[in-house]
Specification:
The chain is mainly alpha-helical and about 200 residues long. About 55% of the residues lie in helices and about 5% in strands. Strands 1-2 form a two-stranded antiparallel ribbon. It is globular, with a radius of gyration of 20 Å. The relative contact order is 0.10.
Length: about 200
């Protein structure tokens, strides 16, 4: 077929007069080079919002085409997730209370990461999230700020989703919370609990 997919004919009904159905299936992740090029450009903090939105829209449309065969993304999943989550991670570490300051397109990138989790599944995608103990406090602080922002700007919910998913991955790492608590008024455990409810 023109789009590179392969047509597999299947016969239904009785053998003599059955209808011929054509099923379109892909054999590999065809748009890999295009997607990698676009991901390289969208994580650039100096990229204009309009250009970032258009590029992420294209990548999101490509990801959505693999909804029925998400396993085709698996060999490249780390290369797809890493640029997005690393851009978010750098922004969160630079400015946890205002992560969109160092990364103006934070919400657009988070929306794209969310689309990838809907296509491939959050458990599969989140395996490639950073999960060091040093990420806990900045991620938690950024998630707390996003939770406040979602109340006034509901269109930013995907950023809170990604931060919460990342926080969940960090919490799966075995370490003592008291050993990394910087001594805020509330302890880390209480802050995490309040974010979750």
């Amino acid at each position: 077929l023109e789009d590179g997919s392969v047509a597999y004919p299947t016969v239904t009904g009785d053998e003599a007069g059955g209808d011929l159905l054509v099923n379109s299936r892909r054999e590999f992740f065809q748009e890999l080079d295009e997607v990698q090029g676009l991901l390289t450009s969208v994580v650039d903090p100096s990229l204009e919002t309009k250009q970032c939105r258009e590029a992420c829209g294209r990548v999101g449309a490509i990801f959505t085409q693999y909804q029925e065969q998400p396993g085709l993304l698996d060999p490249h999943l780390e290369d797809l997730v890493t640029p997005l989550i690393e851009a978010i991670r750098q922004a969160v570490h630079n400015s946890p209370r205002a992560a969109s300051t160092p990364l103006p397109n934070l919400h657009i990138l988070s929306s794209l990461l969310y689309i990838l989790t809907t296509v491939r599944g959050y458990k599969t995608v989140s395996r490639f999230f950073p999960h060091e103990a040093a990420d806990l406090e900045p991620c938690l602080e950024a998630a707390e700020e996003e939770a406040k922002l979602v109340a006034t700007r509901p269109d930013t919910w995907s950023t809170l989703y990604c931060l919460t998913l990342w926080l969940g991955m960090v919490l799966l790492t075995p370490f003592d919370l008291t050993s990394i608590d910087s001594g805020s008024e509330k302890g880390l455990s209480l802050r995490i609990l309040e974010l979750g409810v």
